[in-house]
Amino acid sequence: MFERPVLVIFHGGTGDGHAERMLAAARVAAARNTAQAALAAGFEAVIIATSEPGEFAPVLPGLLIDPDQPGEPFDFAARLRGIVARYGLQKPATMGSGSVPLLGLDEFRLVVEQLEARDPRFVTNNFFSADLTAWTPGEAIERCGEFGRDNLLPRRLRDDAGLASVILPRTTATQFDLDTPSDLAVLSLCEGLPPELAEAAKPAAAAAARYRTFMPLLCDRTMQVVVAGRVGGSQAWQYLERETACRVRLFAEERGLATAPPGYRARSILGFLIEEVGVERFFHRLAELGDGAVIDTRVIEAHLGIEPSREDRFQSDLLAWEAIEEPFLRRFTRAAAEAPIPVLLGGHSLVSGGLMALNDVAWAENDRRLGL
Questions:
Q1: pTM (2 decimals)?
Q2: 179-369 adopts what CATH topology?
Q3: In CATH, which of 3.40.50.300, 3.20.20.70, 3.90.550.10, 3.40.50.10420 is domain 2-172?
Q4: Of 21, 41, 110, 123, which is most buried by a Cβ count within 10 Å?
């Protein structure tokens, strides 16, 4: 039985495509770095729940590997409940291997501090779409209804188990995730990364060239950028208004798409425009709205009813249209790569924590350029 906080990191389902494996390697590096930070901050142990235990050799002190059972379909809630019960976790925390890779010692110490409190509670980085959730007592998870994904866990802990909520401050470190290659491209631009994580981000450096073209726009009051997708409404708007110099044209739509009920039909204003004018003219119209654009492509895909493979999506994030098999996404990505303005493609993480991290890097480079 573990009396002190223990972190459970899930890693698996990585795929065999080139872009998938590139991201998987980065997530392993992120998980190892996260484990070291958590242990240094006071976590008693870190458990890696994985279908690929060999990826984590050599095993660090304090790191336990809990391999998936071969042949069993993955059920996140059942797997997490099983780990909590089997190890007797009194103060568990859980996250994915690519979640909040910039989270450091101070943030993990804050989580430990909250878990050591006497009152039942949970801690999360995002109540409505969690990447990191910690709670006490551990057995509260048995009172939670079903949750197929980790981002639903805070709502279950509050509504079903009756725990009080503690939300971590909204910073780049608590909001940035490593979900897609676009996030890896952003990470490759960040300074001061731990050596293993910096090395894992290098394969995305070529794709990051377009991000370098985009970044100066954020620091220029004469410029305007378009941000479209599952953007977090008022919080994202306030951040962009406060932390960027440019004007921002924001299209926030389809929040909660990942947890929508079966049969839900997404609708996107950008999707409607693409249907009306086609992808090539769409990007020319987009250039009339802004000097650069950041687009969550999963919303457009859902609107159009296309379901590309994960490898195709990841190649689209890299703007590698030649490697994409799905016909629409191949054409769309090529048009984005050839657009008259810099266009960045990705998922939800790109238009949330990814954009925050990109803005941090942009201002650091801007200040250096000005000698500040």
A1: 0.92
A2: Rossmann fold (3.40.50)
A3: 3.90.550.10
A4: 123
